[in-house]
Amino acid sequence: MQPTTRRLLLGATSIAALLAFGADPAASLQALPSQDEECGERASLAITVTDDSGLIPIPGATVVLRWTDAVRRPVREEVDGDGRLLVCVPRDVSQATLWAEFGDASSEEAVVALEPGAAHEIQLGLLFGETTTGRVVGQVRDARTHRPVAAAEISVASRADVAQSNRTGRFVLSGLPVGEHELSFRHIGFAPLTHSVTVTRGHTTEVDARLSPDPVELEPLVATATRPRRLEIKGFYERKYWGEQVGGGTFFTAQDIERRNPVRITHMIADAPGVRLADCTLRGYGCKLYSSRGSTGFASGGCLMNVYLDGNLVVRESEARWGRPPESINDFVLPVEIAGIEVYRGAASLPAEFSGSDARCGAVVIWTK
Fold it and tell me: What total number of domains does the chain contain?
């Protein structure tokens, strides 16, 4: 890349980052402290996200942090206006893997050994160059019992480093060049497994590997799927994974919508437990989504759900209490335009970024392609 082109690219990136900084922060399991708070006896991570030169901070970038040796939900948070984020580490964690994302750009993965009371400063440089890399995430399980396999070694034929699955069997391989790669899975007591995956620009490849106990004669299984990078950055897959584990929501992917092929998206959302439609016209327009807490219709005081479209609140529950007839999500988006849907039927199951004083009836969160 020529120097002039590089300066223009970095300048455009910085402007886009400043515009994106106004968005609501993504959800995480724990509340992250401000820079003025102290972590006491716990380890701390002071993270700075910059461009690839290390000189320009990138506000609005998302930091993804996975606890390598503890069964805890990963942290997914936006940095502040200076491109910084402070994290107090849980006491039961001794290692973390983290990286930063902004649009289609991402940093290289960093692995940090953590000690109680120690302060760690990490700088993550986003790679905006023309050469793109992708990421493979997945889970390793026992083919017979379907239980997670911890400490399995995952390697790529073209790289010398080896990743390890955590206590839930999950692993991450980042910084892989776009193209075909051969993954190798190994663990004592299981037959080794190799499988080819394709890393695609702008997407994350998900792998579900099932190892066959050795010497039991079972065929190893590998399932792969490519998922939109945008949903990955917005935390859709993390919320889907944990929501399905604890029954905290109902989730529909683009593949689910394609199989159902609904005329109006409200018809499919109404399949979620505790959700129903009301106020529909004969042709299916004007439908409103209500949680099971309220009565059957808007006019009779039903519990109207908030609806978010790409993170923006477009249908508000409080409009019903203010006497204004709310709009229908059918007026905003068609089923073929949708990449993913999250349905939360009550305030108790709502992630932090979709909660609030007017979220008593839950929310429907829709992400477009």
Answer: 3
